[in-house]
Structures are given as C-alpha cells and as structure tokens.
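for the recovery benchmark. tokens below, seq after
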C-alpha cells in the first residue's frame, strides 16, 4: 500500500471540498442594498391657493418631517400653525393679522428653507354689517364700531346735524362714486377715538390694491373768518369748497364766529383720499374751511393723500400731534387767512410721489391773488419735523447726495420744505427741516416785508441736508434759505436753480441768510449731522425721527416769542422737532405707516 499517495489524495479532496463550500457560500450570500436616499426638502404645490385667516391649507412636497414640530411653516414672515405632518404633506392654518399675497415657506433645523414658487392669497371676509351712506344726512346719527360704513357719492352733513363716531369705527370710501364726507357750516363731527382704538377713514379696496385717490376725503367747514368770504352778505354769493359743489366755505358777514365749534377729530387716521374730480380740482385728505377755535383737532394721521394731506382755508382752529405720510402734493397747506396754531407735526415724503404743481411740506398763501385781504394768513407752527425725499450726505463744494430711500433721483416736482408766498405771514419755531431741494423759500417782496417787519417769524429752527449746486456763482451752496424779490416766482413751480442765497431787497433785513442767523436758526450741511435715529425709510416702514444721543435737535427750543404766548402751546420741550425719546407720539398704537396691508373688518 502506498500511504503517501493516499494522504495526498485525501488532502486534495479536503481542499476541494473547502473550496466548493466557499464557492457555495459566496454564491448564496445576499447582495446588500445601497443606503436609502432622503428626499430633498421641496414644495411642489398647495391647496387651496387662497383663503382667509384660520382656513386650512394642505402643502404637498418632499423631505418634510412627519412631526408637527419638525419644521416651521410661514406665510411670508408670519408663522402658521402646523396641524398635521407626513413626509409628503403638511396641513397648516392660515395665520391671523395678514392680508395679501405671500409665498409659503417651510424651514427645518439645519436645512435650507424653501419657498413656494407661487404665492398664497390671504383674503378677508367682512364680519361686520356694512352700512351704506349715500345721501345727505339730515338728522343726528351715531356710527358704531360694530358696523363698517361705506360712503358713496358726496355725503353732506347738513347744518344743525351731529354725526358721532365711536372709537374703533371703520369708514370706507367708494372709489367709483368718489365717496366723500362733507360737514357743512353749522354741523358737527364728534370723532373721538383713543390711542388703542382709533377711528379710521380709508379705501374700500382690498389690501395690496389700494392707491392714492381711492375716495374723496373728509371735509369740515365752520363759521369762522375766511378772507374768501370777506364782505359777502348774500349767501348765494359765497364761494364753495374745492370738490364740494354745494358747500359754502363759511358764513356771510355778521354771522361768522371765530369761536365756532365744528366738533372733535381726535385719534383718527385718514388714508388713500383725494380723488381727482377734474384737473387741478382734487379733494385733500383733510380739508378744513373756516373752522373755529371751539373745534378739537389732535392726533390725526393722513397717509397717501392724492393732493394735500392737511389744508386749512381760513379759520382759527388749533391742531396738535399730526402726521402727514407720503402724500402727493403739500403736507400742510394754509390759505385764505388761516391764523390758528399747530404744534407737534411730522411730515415724511416719498422719493417719487410728487405733484406737477410743485410739492412742499408747507405751502402758504394769503390767497390765490396775492392780495392784502384780511384776515391775513398768519398760522404759527412749532415743533415740526419735515423729512424730504432726499438725504444729503456731505457738504461744501463737493456736495453729494443720496436719495430716500434708494440711490436714485427724487421727483423733479419737489420744490422746497417751506414755500411762503402770496403775502402769507406764516411763522415757524422750534422745527426741523431736512432733505429737500430747498429749505425755506420766501417768495415775493411782500413776504420779505412780512418777515422784515416781524409779521412772519422764522426762529429757533434747524435747516439743512438740502441739495446743493452753483447758485449765482456760489459753488456748493446748500439751498437752505432762498428769497425771490419782486412779485415772486412763476406760479407754483418756482425755478429754484435761478435764485440767490441773499438779497438786499429783503424787506427791513439785510437778507434771508443774515435774518436766519439773527433768529437763532441753525444750518447743517448733511442729514447725518442732525443725528435723527432713522428718518429715511422705505414705504410702509416706520421712520424714526427721534434725536439720538448728542443730536443738536435735543436742545435749542425757545418759547419766549410773543407769537407762542397762546396757552395752546406746550412750552416744556427743550428739543426742536416733533418728538423726543420720552415724547414720541409717532410710535403710539393708533399710528400706522403701512396702510396698504392693513386688514379692516
């Protein structure tokens, strides 16, 4: 027997078996699947595509977390409540307090947020009854906050009638019929809102669709003096108000009273008014004709007016805590012998919204004919802040400008912050003016005479941040104060690029620049020098005109001039301008700088 060969054969058999078993095991082993791929976060659709606050919306997509707390969902920047969640569907509720079109945004911790390619339209339904007002009001009425009042046509409140409006009441104006509310001489509006519950006059259009001139506006007429009515004893000969074809501007001689009481307008907003009735015949946001001193007007904001924000034709009413926001023409227009007092007012302009007639913060005439009729326009303003359309960043011959709020040119229709013309004797104290093509424009020899003789006083103000250029050979000159001698500028649009900074023809004074310095007015080259917190903001964003620490506006107020002796004036401020850090009414709840997106229901 050959044992070595037998052992070899046995060894080979064992090796063969091992190899065969190995091959069998290898051939029988299951192939491992690749690691699962997590779908990326994406929104593919949502349904429905519109709805009101509280409605349920289903969002379809990929990469969602199956937990209701695994991601956040928002409509624009407003968070929504997630009711249910799977990897491919989210069920959410439309949030409150928004209206308009918004992308839906889904965000997960540690993941990039995704937005829907189309926008969800948040709509509203009016939950209150709508009361239509379309004919003359001939008996006393009470308007309450549990209704919405819709004005159609010219709604006249006849003499002897009082309309009382409760806090929180919403009044809307119809666009097609040019809805307007007109209080005739002898009638009263009793609109006493509150800081938390203002009364609101606004457009009837939905958020996102509103525009300047969506309705007429609010017109109040009284029985105080108005130089357009001077010498008239025949009632049929009285002139009528702009846009109110049957409403007379005042009473006839012998029936006027400067203490007349047209009621109360307090904690009120007026938005999107100023419908154009015909060329150069628009209704203002708030029009006041011959309103007497018995009338209370305070805490009123006029936004996006299609003509002037506030205009006073005659009368002696006092007003305080006013805001004129992004109107198209003038912010505070005073005419026909208005001789009231105004304290604490803010005006903020838009970069491009300006009127072809020439837009200003103050426009003041004695009358359209430059006459010497009495009473003479002699309104007294104090503690006003007038923010123009442009911000000037540096001074001197190398003057450069940046526009408000973008780096683009402001409308060429802007003229100046203050345009005193046609024999007006307007006075301004303790106020701020910045960011306009020109600051104070004294237009005509009669205006220069009013200033030179003390009828008109411009004192303790800060001017500056206005545009510059070569004016009568003066390079880099800031147009802070300008004077036109003779009969004045050409109509409303004064050619400011042809004016000189000073003139020996300036009444009894050497010239306007010398006059301003003599009356403790200050001039600053750039807007930054005012050190206001944030005066230039985009539309819909709250401007902050509070003087910051170290601002020159924190000091310099003075109330010793006899024109400020009236008990109406608060003489405690040491600051100039409309507000200070501890006295800032523009931040109160009744104010709204974004009426485009406000939900009124």
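predicted aa per position
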């Amino acid at each position: 027997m050959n044992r070595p060969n037998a052992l070899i054969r046995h060894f080979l058999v064992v090796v063969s078996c091992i190899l065969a078993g190995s091959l069998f095991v290898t051939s029988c082993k299951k192939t491992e699947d690749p690691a699962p791929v997590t779908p990326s976060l994406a929104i593919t659709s949502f349904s429905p595509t519109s709805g009101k606050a509280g409605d349920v919306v289903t969002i379809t997509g990929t990469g969602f977390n199956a937990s209701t707390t695994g991601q956040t969902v928002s409509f624009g920047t407003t968070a929504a409540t997630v009711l249910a969640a799977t990897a491919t569907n989210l069920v959410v509720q439309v949030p409150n307090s928004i209206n308009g079109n918004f992308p839906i945004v889904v965000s997960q911790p540690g993941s990039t947020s995704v937005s829907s390619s189309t926008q969800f339209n948040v709509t509203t339904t009016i939950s209150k009854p709508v009361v239509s007002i379309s004919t003359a009001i001939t008996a006393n009425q009470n308007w309450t906050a549990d209704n919405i009042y819709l004005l159609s046509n010219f709604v006249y409140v006849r003499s002897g009638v009082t309309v009382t409006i409760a806090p929180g009441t919403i009044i809307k104006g119809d666009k097609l019929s040019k809805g307007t509310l007109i209080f005739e001489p002898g009638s009263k509006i009793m609109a006493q809102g509150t800081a938390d519950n203002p009364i609101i006059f606004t457009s009837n259009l939905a958020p996102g669709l509103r525009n300047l001139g969506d309705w007429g506006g609010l017109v109040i007429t009284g029985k105080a003096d108005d130089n357009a009515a001077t010498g008239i004893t025949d009632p049929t000969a009285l002139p009528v108000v702009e846009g109110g074809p049957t409403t007379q501007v005042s009473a006839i001689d012998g029936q006027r009273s400067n203490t007349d009481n047209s009621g109360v307008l307090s904690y009120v907003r007026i938005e999107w008014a100023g419908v154009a009735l015909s060329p150069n015949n628009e209704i203002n946001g708030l029009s006041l004709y011959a309103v007497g001193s018995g009338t209370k007007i305070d805490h009123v904001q006029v936004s996006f007016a299609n003509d002037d924000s506030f205009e006073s034709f005659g009368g002696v009413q006092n007003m305080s805590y006013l805001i004129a926001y992004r109107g198209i023409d003038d912010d505070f227009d005073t005419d026909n012998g208005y001789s009231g007092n105004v304290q604490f007012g803010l005006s903020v302009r838009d970069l491009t919204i300006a009127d072809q007639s020439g837009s200003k913060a103050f426009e003041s005439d004695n009358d359209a004919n430059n006459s010497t009729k009495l009473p003479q326009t002699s309104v007294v303003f104090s503690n006003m802040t007038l923010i123009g359309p442009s911000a000037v960043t540096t001074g001197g011959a190398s003057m450069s400008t940046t526009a408000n709020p973008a780096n683009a040119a402001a409308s060429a229709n802007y003229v100046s912050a203050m345009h005193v013309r046609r024999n007006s004797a307007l006075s301004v104290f303790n106020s701020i003016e910045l960011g306009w093509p020109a600051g104070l424009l004294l237009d005509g020899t009669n205006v220069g005479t009013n200033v030179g003789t003390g009828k008109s006083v411009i004192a303790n103000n800060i001017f500056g941040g206005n545009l510059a250029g070569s004016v009568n050979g003066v390079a880099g000159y800031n147009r802070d104060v300008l004077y036109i001698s003779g009969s004045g500028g050409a109509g409303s649009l004064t050619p400011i690029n042809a004016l000189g900074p000073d003139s020996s023809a300036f009444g009894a004074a050497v010239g306007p620049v010398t006059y301003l310095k003599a009356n403790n007015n200050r001039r600053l080259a750039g807007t930054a020098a005012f050190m206001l917190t944030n005066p230039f903001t985009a539309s819909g964003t709250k401007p902050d005109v509070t003087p910051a620490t170290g601002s020159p506006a924190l000091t310099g107020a003075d109330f010793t001039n006899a024109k400020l002796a009236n008990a109406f004036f608060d003489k405690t401020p040491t600051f100039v301008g409309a507000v200070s850090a501890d006295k800032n009414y523009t931040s109160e709840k009744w104010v709204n700088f974004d009426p485009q997106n406000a939900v009124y229901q």
